[in-house]
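User: Okay, second chain of the day. Same drill as before: sequence in, structure tokens out.
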Amino acid sequence: MQKYLVGYVSKNGTTKEIAQKIGSILKENNFDTDILSLEEIKNIDQYSGIILGTPVYGMKLLPEFSVFVEENKNIKNITGFFVVSYLFEVGRKMWKNAIQKDIDRFKSILIPQSTAIFAGGISKKMPGFANFLFGLPKGLPLDNRNWKQIEEWANEIINKIKSK
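Assistant: Same drill. Structure tokens below.
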């Protein structure tokens, strides 16, 4: 029987909640699925497909994600790779370019079948100078996640798995 993993690293819980949603959609579609933080993963070889997620912090993917990828360089079955960023879609182009550069670096290592960048959330409002620096629009909510987009991506992954 095939088994799938949704592995994630999360700084404030936003990425964890997205990983849980993706994993629950897989489970609802009768896929044997584990949803684990990267530090909980013990045997990556037992999975037929792996979906990995990480947030952006300081315009880069979390260092814990980088360490995990480095320690598991030989992963071949990356079904999906998702990144969560509060300002990727709404911030200044220079920040988007910096984030995209780091995402592209990991895509070249992981070679995922599907990649997604989701809007994220922050726990408290940023100071005015930070909003200006990042180019964030006034009145931006603390949580920008688009659950419909997340569900659509999870279903896209399911369709890719079924078409194999």
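The first helix runs from residue 14 to 28.

User: Thanks, on to the next one.
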